[in-house]
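re the bet — no i am not wrong, look at it urself. input seq straight from the record:
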Amino acid sequence: MASDYSVICKLGGYVNSNPEIISSYPSLGKSVESEILSKCFPVGSKTGDFTIDKYRKYSVLSYIFRVNQSAARDDLFSLSVLLHKKDKVEIYKPVLQSLIDTLEQNGLLNEHILTKNQRIIFEGINQEKNITINDILIDLSTIFKEIKSKILKPEIKLKGSFL
């Protein structure tokens, strides 16, 4: 299981702001960005929401979170991953939430840190490995293991014969 793209969107905390894609890894291209924006940052999204939508051959999983601003209102962001439709999005929800929570707890949750480290975040999610952002270790591998052990039950192999 792996995502093909990671997308960061922003809704500024000022009057008449509109959602915008501020970064994607790998790059989506302008025509795709205009198509996918509403899937990555749906209208009416609130802090803490997870949204799941379909886009072409992908399931778009987005986590909406707030970034505090010293002046004006806080900005809303979404961190989205485009997963193949056969992948279980339930596995990725706690991973995204833990990533954002860890950054927030360490004072690292801002637009600059997110965009600067998007490739590292993308690779950590795809390879299910730990990542380090500004000397803070984010233990993604343990989160993936715990979630997979709960969600992915081993198939029971039946032995014997049936009449």
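see?? The CA atoms of residues 8 and 111 lie 9 Å apart. told u. also The mean pLDDT is 89. so pay up
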